[in-house]
Amino acid sequence: MDEFKELAPTYVYQFPYPSVDGFKGKLIRNWNTYLGIPSYYKNLKNELLAQNVGLIYANGIGTGVLLDFLSFLNCKVISHIHELEIGIQANGSNNLALLKKYTSHYIAVSKAVKHNLISKHTIPEKVISLVYEFVPVVEVEKSRQLFQEFEIPETAFIIGAAGSVDIRKGADLLILLAKEIAEKDNGNLCYFIWVGNKPEEHSYFLQDIYKLGLEKNVVFTGLKKNPLPYFNSFDVFVLLSREDPYPLVCLENALLSKPILCFDQSGGMPEFVENDCGFVVPYLDIKAMAAKIIELQSNSVLKTRLGNNARRKATDQHNVHVAAPKILDIIYQYCNELKTQ
């Protein structure tokens, strides 16, 4: 919130009238009225109207209800879509209907996202621009923090992953991948590190780890305020997601010269990896991914080449200074249209 406030006046919108019918809905609305919430939003509307807003940039699929509230501004809307179908469905059909109702133009973060909007939601291709995700280029010093914190041997080969511990992100598949590689002769040299929330609430993940005897080699670090030093200790990065639009964590690892491995048919990352920044293996084919990891473990020249390619591509194509101006161009295009009206 503070970062937004440094850039511009910032307002917090809390949905005042949930779509609850009957006595419960009436009770909630009366309580909100008692708290003075309607008058707050009336004042907010007046303040926004006074600012002569001509264009709304809506960041994310979950902004439909907010756009409905802002419809009194009667202006163009550019919606930046970072989600695929699971994310779209999670936000509900009503949200999507409102987003489509008010959006004039869409920005998709990958070809996969663009194709999904066209094929599953009948959004015309002519109103969708493709602008890939981007991250700032930063220098990260080598750190032994990961090895020291979790007592990992310095000689270990680190297979890294990151994100929330859930089925979409494929946290369960990390365990199967560790099992597959542990069955090979060099399995004890490999450690599998997941940077993200710990799986205590998913006890079945922990049960699988212990039942397979992988508790030494599979580590969930928990959330880290700055994960980049942990990423920098990886040898390779695996994206195990069943669906992921164009995850920033892959770009962050690419900038650290880490080869990226992912599944096909899983979202946008195959568009980045291609055949020069890592490996794209068949969807959910754990054996194929394990084979590629072992290949990289035994071929440091290949690992370095793919990692350097990943860094170069991320720097050249996904640097914030390269990609962000493309979004500004789209915004300026609509601003210029407003001037000519």
Binned strand content: 5-15%
Number of strands: 10
For the terminal residues, how far apart are their CA atoms? Answer: 35 Å
What percent of the residues sit in helical stretches (DSSP H or I)? 40-55%
Largest sheet: 6 strands, parallel
The computed structural class is alpha/beta
Pfam family, one: Glycos_transf_1
Protein name: Glycosyltransferase family 4 protein
Organism: Rhodocytophaga rosea
GO molecular function, one term: glycosyltransferase activity
Q: What does this molecule look like?
A:
The chain has helices spanning 2-7, 22-35, 37-50, 64-69, 85-90, 93-102, 111-121, 145-149, 171-182, 203-211, 228-231, 248-255, 269-273, 286-298, 300-317, 320-340; strands spanning 55-59, 76-81, 105-108, 128-130, 157-162, 190-195, 218-222, 236-238, 260-263, 278-281. It is α/β, with parallel strands linked by helices and 341 residues long. The protein folds into 2 domains: 2-134 and 321-340, no CATH class; 145-318, 3-Layer(aba) Sandwich (Rossmann fold), CATH 3.40.50.2000. The chain has a 6-stranded parallel sheet with strand order 7-6-5-8-9-10, with helices on both faces. A 4-stranded parallel sheet has the order 1-2-3-4. Helix 12 (248-255) packs across helix 15 (300-317). The longest helix is centred in the last third of the chain and has 21 residues, at 320-340. The protein is elongated and about 65 Å long. The two termini are 35 Å apart. The relative contact order is 0.11.
